[in-house]
From TrEMBL:
Name of the featured protein: FAD-dependent protein C-terminal domain-containing protein
Domain FAD-dependent protein C-terminal residues, every copy: 277-469
Length: 523
């Protein structure tokens, strides 16, 4: 039976082949006694800037297990039973709406049971979508159905491709293994903070589509859900592009957090929805070299990965929080609008994270008390109003308003530099935001600088507005994962209000697929 050996450390630049003799020394055995050693986890310990270490957990198999004793850093690996997928057959029709992580992994999971589905995506395939996005960034020519938010792969396709999650789910390994199977870098299986990068992620998405087609799934691009047919409280059909009606008994709804017209359609049909807190703010950009120095110290070893950060601030008096979000080392700030007349910013990195700048969202929490009215769509209108203000402030051509971070916090800095395309216009960003949001961000930035000396810098630029941090509402569902109001409707993923990133959305899609399979097996 193999063992997990934790807290092996190497200095940056030391080859990982040194782990085997290091493990042998820790175990008190000869190196030849180790018959197998594989990486389980790898992270960076930068708490001591002058003594940064790479920290590993490894799985080892020994010829003679009686030679070692388990303890805090050495435990036996209990063999987990592989997941079982009984082959099922169903006369009902499954439709999946949305080809983001939730929709794609719901489909992959259904395929394990031998089930197939019709998959609808309002946007275009990832290759045509990439062309549309590139055109928008160069020329400001927005395609409202094919952009950073809509299209094969979902919004995460144009991001850093982070796979971190706080969710403890046995399917995490299953997701990572599938991603590697379709082209993700193998190190995501053991990296403490795994990421794929937008460049690699596009190829992964393409590979998943090809596998689904091979498995008998039918995929329709430029196919927007515009209606749901009901009989006796049960889903019986879907309407696509306001035209064709297709039979449907189980509807997996994974719309993404920007499908505002879909939200409006659901509200009109009486689907149970509720307002939900989210966060809005700005995106900050620093030289990556500055972030490296802050996190690693001067003269850090060049083999260390581009440095990251995550910061939070809570104002107990107001109940509001500010935090960094979707930090992109070596990345760029991107135009992420999906509606004409609105400016939205986001961040993106390639797999190598080798760009000269780092960026991150700096956002503050908002909730129903900030929205106008009690409608479930009030959060959508709150977002939309901020985006329209940013559009006008930028010059009404998808240029983004931007400001020196020093100027934003009142220290008098001037001058802006941003990787955002199609360009930026200098503007007082606080005037765009609700007063409590701007105040919380300023407080948070000062707090971040106390923890990361140098964060407040003349080299830092803020760009606005960041509004699409998560869904502005929740599509209510019960313990069986079906809508509280429409049987057969399975809301899932980030857009439904049940996830917050690629990994958690994929896991939620899997849960929905398993629920559908269980329902079919019991029928």
């Amino acid at each position: 039976m193999p063992f997990l050996l934790r807290n092996l450390t190497l200095s940056p630049g030391v080859e990982e082949s040194a782990l085997r003799p290091l493990a042998a020394a820790r175990l008190g055995v000869r190196e030849s006694e180790i018959t197998a050693l594989t990486l389980v986890r790898k992270g960076v310990d930068a708490r001591k800037k002058g003594a940064i270490k790479l920290v590993y957990t490894v799985q080892v198999t020994l010829r003679d297990e009686s030679r070692v004793r388990t303890g805090e850093d050495l435990t036996r690996v209990e063999a987990a039973a592989p997941p079982r997928f009984p082959k099922l057959a169903s006369a009902g029709r499954i439709v999946i709406v949305g080809m983001g992580p939730a929709g794609l992994f719901a489909a992959l999971r259904l395929a394990e049971y031998g089930l197939t589905a019709r998959v609808l995506e309002r946007g275009r395939d990832v290759d045509r979508r990439s062309t549309d996005v590139s055109r928008f960034w160069r020329l400001g020519d927005l395609c409202e159905e094919s952009n950073v938010q809509f299209g094969e792969g979902g919004a995460g396709t144009f991001s850093d491709g982070k796979l971190t999650t706080r969710v403890k789910d046995p399917n995490c390994g299953w997701v990572l293994e599938r991603l590697v199977q379709f082209g993700a870098p193998p190190e995501i299986l053991y990296a403490a903070k795994p990421h794929i990068g937008t460049d690699r992620l596009r190829a992964v998405v393409r590979g998943i589509r090809e596998r689904l087609l091979e498995s008998g799934f039918h995929i329709g691009f430029e196919s927007r859900l515009t209606g749901i047919g009901m009989t006796g409280g049960e889903v019986k059909s879907v309407v696509v592009n306001d035209a064709g009606e297709e039979p449907c008994d189980s509807l997996v709804l994974a719309p993404g957090h920007s499908a505002r017209d879909t939200y409006a359609m659901l509200h009109g049909l009486g689907v149970a929805l509720e307002q939900k807190p989210f966060a809005v703010g700005l995106r900050v950009e620093h030289p990556q070299a500055l972030i490296n120095e802050i996190q690693y110290g001067r003269n850090a070893h060049p083999s260390l990965p581009p440095a990251e950060y995550a910061q939070t601030y809570n104002n107990e008096a107001t109940g509001r929080s500010a935090y960094s979000f979707c930090m992109c080392p070596g990345g760029v700030v991107v135009a992420a609008a999906s509606e004409a007349g609105g400016v939205v910013v986001n961040g993106m990195s390639g797999y190598r994270r080798n760009g000269p700048y780092a960026n991150s969202a700096l956002v503050a929490t908002v909730g129903p008390a900030d929205f106008a009215g009690s409608s479930p769509l009030a959060g959508v209108e709150f977002q939309r109003e901020l985006e329209r203000r940013a559009f006008v402030a930028g010059g009404s051509g998808y240029r983004a308003p931007a400001q020196s971070l020093l100027d934003f916090i009142g220290r008098g800095g001037r001058g802006i530099r941003s990787s955002y395309r199609p360009g930026v216009t200098e503007y007082d960003l606080a005037s765009l935001l609700p007063v409590p949001v701007a105040a919380t961000l300023r407080e948070g930035i000062e707090q971040f600088d106390r923890r990361m000396r140098g964060f407040v810098s003349a080299e830092a630029t803020l760009t606005g507005v960041e509004t699409r941090t998560s869904a502005p509402l929740r599509i209510l569902r019960g313990a069986d994962l079906q809508s509280l109001s429409h049987r057969g409707l399975y809301p899932t993923g980030e857009g439904a209000g049940y996830a917050g990133g690629i990994m958690s959305a994929a896991l939620d899609g899997i849960r929905v697929a398993d629920a559908i399979a269980a329902r079919i097996a019991a029928s």
